Amino acid sequence: MTSKSRHIGTRIDRPVDGVYDFASDPANLPKWAAGLGSSVELIDGQWIAESPMGRVTFVFVPRNDYGVLDHDVALPSGETVYNPMRVIADGTDCEVVFTLRRQTGMSDDDFAYAVDAVSKDLATLKLVLEAGS
Fold this sequence. Notes:
Elements: E1 5-12, H1 16-23, H2 29-32, E2 39-43, E3 46-51, E4 54-60, E5 71-74, E6 80-83, E7 85-90, E8 93-101, H3 108-131
């Protein structure tokens, strides 16, 4: 039986504050999170992305001192998916961890595809941030 959640992480050779600042800014999402969307706009106080699934809206938890980047994504179907995400300090570097939750009815292949997509997004985040060193 496949677990219901998978923790996907990457180490980034950058200070936690800079990584958190960059990743928590919705305007930066197209630079690293292709799984969420290729473009984002703030319309009437709501962040909207054009995603591979269609138009989605999303909201991050309020800015905090704990590296928490949890966010809800409202899908075109009307379903809202909660996505836990953290930026965790480790000395002068950090780790970004995304918890992917297997949705009801999701096939093994679809879950594996989602794991791969999140892994690629985090690898891109690492590349973008470390290139700025």
